[in-house]
From TrEMBL:
PANTHER family: SOLUTE CARRIER FAMILY 25. It is a multi-pass membrane protein. It is found in: Mitochondrion membrane. Solcar repeats lie at residues 4-90. The keyword Secreted does not apply. It comes from Rhizopus delemar (strain RA 99-880 / ATCC MYA-4621 / FGSC 9543 / NRRL 43880) (Mucormycosis agent). GO terms for biological process: transmembrane transport. InterPro entries: MCP (IPR002067), MCP_dom_sf (IPR023395), MCP_transmembrane (IPR018108). This is Uncharacterized protein. SUPFAM superfamilies: Mitochondrial carrier (SSF103506). Belongs to the mitochondrial carrier (TC 2.A.29) family. The lineage of its organism: Eukaryota, Fungi, Fungi incertae sedis, Mucoromycota, Mucoromycotina.
């Protein structure tokens, strides 16, 4: 079975976006929690936040909400890779650059 060539960049973008989001999600979660704590400081430092989340929520606490982020990033990155490859091919055929 042959994959439609134009789908390869789309699927590659979806996979790349999912992987990148999964790897960086704990850092994004920490950034979000620090931004939302306001004047009532829940976390005093980065190490305090990491230890508190790990203790109270477990390792899964660092990935809470990952599913919705991946659902959002997959079509975005798929379309971005697809568009890039399509425009690159068009420019090559037209010999614009």
């Amino acid at each position: 079975m042959q994959v439609i060539p134009s789908l390869k960049p789309f699927v590659s973008g979806m996979i790349a976006g999912s992987f990148a989001t999964t790897v960086t999600y704990p850092f994004d979660l920490l950034r979000t929690r620090f931004a939302l704590q306001g004047t009532n400081k829940v976390y005093n430092s980065l190490s305090h936040a990491v230890l508190d989340i790990a203790e109270k929520e477990g390792i899964g606490g660092f990935y809470r909400g990952l599913g919705s982020s991946i659902t959002q990033i997959m079509p975005y990155m798929g379309l971005m890779f697809f568009s890039y490859e399509g425009l690159y091919s068009l420019i090559q055929r037209l010999k614009v650059f």
